[in-house]
Amino acid sequence: MTLLATRPSWSLQDLKAELELSDGNLVTHLRTLHDNGYVAVTRPTHQAIANMIGSNIFNILGILGVTAVIAPMHVAPELARSDMWWMIGTSLLLLPLMRSGARLSRGEGALLFGTYLAYLMALIAL
After folding, report:
1. % of the chain with per-residue pLDDT over 70
2. What is the pTM of this model?
3. Which residue from 49, 68, 69, 79 has the least number of CB within 10 angstroms?
4. Are 108 and 97 in contact (CB under 8 A)?
5. In this predicted model, what pLDDT tens digit does every residue of 61-114 receive, in sequence order?
6. 3 with 18: CB under 8 angstroms?
7. What does the angle CA 37 – CA 102 – CA 112 come to, to the nearest 5 degrees?
8. Closest Cα partner for 109 from 59, 45, 47, 57?
9. Burial of 6 (0-12, 13-18, 19+ CB in 10 A)
10. What is the CA radius of gyration of the chain?
11. What secondary structure letter does DSSP report for 75?
C-alpha cells in the first residue's frame, strides 16, 4: 500500500517490476485491493483497439505481402466478389463508431456482432 501511495498512478508493468511479482500474482492482489476500495483499476481501451487494428493491418499487408513476394498467389474470384467488400464495409463501419466517444456502446457492439453474424450467414449461403 505504501508503494501505491508514492505515485498518482502505476502501470501494470511498473508495479510488476517494482514488486517482482508474476502477472497472475499481481492481478490477484490488485483485484483484492480494488474490491475493497483501496485502488481504482483502469484499462486503456484505446491501446487495445490500436493493437487490434495494427495487428490486422500487419497480418493483411505484411504477412500476405511477404508470402506473395516469396511465391505469387492466385486470388480466388469469390474472395474478390465477397470477402473484400465485407472487409471494406466493416472498416468503413468502424470509422463513425470510433469517433462516437471513448467507449463502444452496447448498441454499437450489437451492430458489430450483427454484422459478423450477417457475414457468417452470407458465407453459409455461398
Report:
1. 85
2. 0.51
3. 69
4. yes
5. 888 889 999 998 888 887 778 888 888 888 888 888 777 666 778 888 899 899
6. yes
7. 110
8. 45
9. exposed
10. 21
11. P
